[in-house]
Amino acid sequence: MNAIEFILAGMLAAATPFLLAALGEMVAERAGVLNLGVEGLMAFGAVLAFIIVYQGGGHLLGFVVAGLGSAVLSLLFAFVTLGFRANQVAAGLAIGILGQGLSALFGKTYESLTVRGLPKLALPGLSELPVIGGLFVQDIVVWISLAATLALWAIFAYSKIGLIVRAVGENPKAAHAIGYSVISVRVLAIAFGGAMAGFAGAYASVVYTPLWADGMIAGRGWIAIALVVFGTWLTGRIFLGACLFGAVSLMGLAAQATGLDVPSQLLSSLPYLVTIIVLGIISADRRLLKLNGVASLGEPFER
Amino acid sequence: MSAWSLAFVPTLVRRERASLAAALCAPVIALGGAITLNLGLYVLMGRDPVAVVYAMLFEPFLSWASFSEVLLKAGPLLLIAQGLAIGFRAKVFNIGAEGQFILGAIFASAIPVWFPQATGQWIWPAMLLLGAIGGALWASLTAFWRVRLNANEILVSLMLSLVAAQLLNYLLLGPWKDPNGFNFPQSVMFQYDAMVPTLIAGTRVNVSFLITLALSVAAWVFMQRSFIGYKLQVGGLAPRAAGYAGFKEGWAIWLSLLIGGFAAGLAGAAEVAGPLGQLQRSVASGYGYAAIIVAYLGGLHPIGIVVSALVMAVIYIGGDNAMVSANLPIAAVRVFQGSLLLAYLIAVAFVRYRLERRRAAHRSPS
């Protein structure tokens, strides 16, 4: 298998944690809430899923518990920012630190243990194609994530729910005036974002690299937040961005496998460096950000 | 017969003036709340709450040896938080102090690593200065990205922290590894003149603590008494007004980040030239993130930050004690920090709002 085949085969799986977390954050941000706690929410979901699977609860239960657990933790964020109108940046950081602390606390006795991942399912026919065949051999979660991406795209493009969420993010006062409860919509959007971050963490700890180690999320949650900016709050572009980061995080492995003489630390920092560079390129086009940006992002709502 | 519903909905009502009493009480209430919450957690984990309280909250004060460690720990937290708070007040959210701290440690270590034989009283001051410059340079990347490329400073500064950690790893596993260090990822031990002189005999508290206190006074003068500090605060509170008054936003971002990076870099330098005495992986032990909490808990005020840095240092040292005597995992300190900031954010709401119990708006038939 050459490097390109290797990257294509692994890209979607590597992209899945980024994709899930970024989609959740996109929904929260479209409702006008900036939740910077994604890294901690992912870590919390990751440890919960790992404990369930390690104790023999199975992957499905692991994902459910991770999603619920991280959603509950994100409701704490909602309580502080919506209930007490706290600064969203500070509250997000607090949730991030809390989530990472809780994950380390709960995961202490599971450090470096492993579980079994999920089997890969091949799409008959397509998976036998040369070079790109690997794209069609994926575990079930990848397929579900792709379906979720499509569903979210459709919801925001065609449904009333998507419209309400956007209205609440764009102009909460107007949304309130025509009878929508801004607070309820935002609470639900935050909880959805939390659950998605939990799933993303679960994927990282029980499917992608099925082991638990403190700090294993390694900045993926932060990159997911950056992805929402890269994707200019649009589902399709966020998906493409996640694929880019899936490929970038595999590039390190591919380079090592081919015996390239580059320090491994440089390869490990590649995703962070790419984030910095892409963030600069996309943000420099202020029009692009203004066009799709969320007008009331990060601002507390007062009647 | 109809009656008003008895349902009372607690509602936050904006105060006409911010309450100073609430501002002073908020950190105390938050601390009390966080302690109660975390003790509950320890009891759930099957730990003896009395032993934990004793180890965490009393032991750090019971001996001079222990309290001097609190001062030692408070130093970097205080210094970094003073720098960050200036930026936070100007609404520049530099959360990459961890990376700026690491770069400070690396820059400072360059002198003893490259010139291990050098002697002279100039070495440790030069290291501190070089470290501060290193931190400011690392922060200037974020400033450039924010001002020239319009990129979000939160994400860029955080990413740069992750890169800095990798850079540290690279140096300690590669070119800067101590050849006689049994393959440990650490540099050579620094020579005598590369160490900041001790301040209090028999403890590890050194002269950098005095520098930190002096810079805290400087931060107070800068923020509360100087025109530049005033301009920064106006820019943070009312960016549009500041724009009309001719205060440039880009200039405020540069200044905020450079001050923050300078302080964090200096703290990193003081750490390697002080208690560590060499460049180690453990130099990056989360000071940069904890200092964000210290800054908020101190109300972003230079005097408040002095107090909150001491509180946070007690939690660190107490957490270490509890790890030994009450078998508490060290991750408990991070949980405590996170819940403390959340509790503070709730408590501080009452500075600008008061809680009123309002009747539910609609009539209910009975």
Most extensive chain-chain interface? A-B, 50 and 45 residues
Mean pLDDT of chain B: 91
Strand portion of chain B, in percent?
under 5%
Report the span from N to C terminus of chain B. 7 Å
Number of helices of chain B: 14
What's the β-strand tally of chain A? 2
Spans of chain B of at least 5 consecutive residues whose pLDDT stays below 50 are 1-5, 362-366
For the CA atoms, what is the radius of gyration of chain A?
19 Å
Query: How much helix is in the residues of chain B?
Result: 55-70%
Summarize model confidence as the mean pLDDT of chain A: 93
Largest sheet, strands/sense/barrel of chain A: 2 strands, antiparallel
Structural class of chain B: mainly alpha
Tell me, what's the shape of chain B?
Answer: globular
> Could you state the order of secondary-structure elements of chain A as H and E?
HHHHEEHHHHHHHHH
Subcellular location (chain A): Cell membrane
Protein name (chain A): ABC transporter permease
Membrane topology (chain A): Multi-pass membrane protein
Pfam family, one (chain A): BPD_transp_2
Describe the protein's architecture and organization.
The complex is a heterodimer of chains A (303) and B (366). Chain A is mainly alpha-helical and 303 residues long. Chain A has 13 helices and two strands; from the N terminus they run ααααββααααααααα. Chain A has a two-stranded antiparallel sheet with strand order 1-2. In chain A, helix 9 (220-230) crosses helix 10 (235-257). The longest helix of chain A has 28 residues, at 3-30. Chain A is globular, with a radius of gyration of 19 Å. Helix content of chain B is 68%, strand content 5%. The model of chain B is unreliable at 1-5 and 362-366 (pLDDT under 50). Chain B contains 14 helices and four strands. In chain B, helix 4 packs across helix 11. In chain B, strands 1-4 form a two-stranded antiparallel sheet. Chain B has 366 residues and is mostly helical. Chains A and B meet through helix 3, helix 4, helix 9, helix 11 and helix 12 of A and helix 5, helix 6, helix 11 and helix 13 of B. Chain B: It is a multi-pass membrane protein. Chain B: The chain crosses the membrane at residues 20-45, 92-116, 122-147, 154-174, 194-221, 253-274, 286-319, 331-353. Chain B: This is ABC transporter permease.
